[in-house]
Amino acid sequence: MPIILDAMGSDKYPDPEIEGSIQAANLLEESIILVGDKPVLTQKLNALAPNHPKISIEHAPEVVDMWDKPVESAKSKPNNSMAVGIGLVKEGKGQAFVTAGNTGGAMFNALRVLGRIKGVQRPALNTTFPTRKGRCIVVDIGANADCRPEFLLQFGIMGSIYAQFLLGIENPKIGLLSNGEEPGKGNQLVKETFKLFEESSLNFYGNVEPKEIFGGEVDVAVTDGFTGNVLVKTSEAVAKMITDVLKEELMSTTRTKLGALLAKPAFSQLKNLIDPSEVGAAPLLGVDGLVFVGHGRSDARAIVSSLLLAEKAIMSGLLVDIKEKISDKLG
Length: 331
Description:
With 331 residues, the protein is α/β, with parallel strands linked by helices. It folds into two domains: 1-120 and 276-331, Isopropylmalate Dehydrogenase; 126-250, Isopropylmalate Dehydrogenase (3-Layer(aba) Sandwich), CATH 3.40.718.10. The protein contains 13 helices and eleven strands. Helix 1 (15-25) packs across helix 2, helix 3 (70-76) packs across helix 5 and helix 6 runs antiparallel to helix 13 (318-330).
């Protein structure tokens, strides 16, 4: 059964989606359905890979742009590529939906069409951070700006399940993002959530600051969507500033250029570590279906990574696992 790819999602749609789907088709067991403007997609696909046996197209005449408001766009553009693509999953014509489009639009359409897993109050979006010891799942990073303590507890449960799936860690350590490591630190939300985690059966590490996250002390970092989104964007901005300044300095003189050439393997390894294209998309945890949302700046490589991750989730039964464990821990 196919993986559904929103071909009108990324900032430069549909080129990254088409190029990525062609590359991924050679690696996937499943076929791919591109959802979007069929005449445009057909022309571009035929120019690169005519009559590809594993790629088909489903027509969706409308697009949810990055600046669109989710509810309004759903009403004014009912046949948008997200709604049509997620609808195919609901109808059993696809096993997972992947998009690099508007996060709010993906969340709204997923909830409207697929609904929530029983027992989950708020679905959450996550990402993976590179750390000194591997990777860390950070959840939520933007789906829920305002949260209650019980929401964050559920984020921790779902994040723990996802860390087992993605990182292969049997009993992931969970940290609660705060402005200090000590118990009692943080705002009222953090303090009340801390108590819930202490009383749970999760492997709770305690409060963490960003230094513990990047230091690899925890496998999952839990926070509200507002704070998580600021954390992600700040981290991306700092990483870009450091790499840009480093590049400028290394290219400034003949001596530093020589040093850069000798250190090229180390720089390549660092680039791979912080490159979001390596991971691709992230699932909307808590939605009753496999929905993956990638960055708007996704290139073909990121699309390939997203499709491979979606296939891994399908093969491993991630959705069933989340449903069963959510029921066990909340039931």
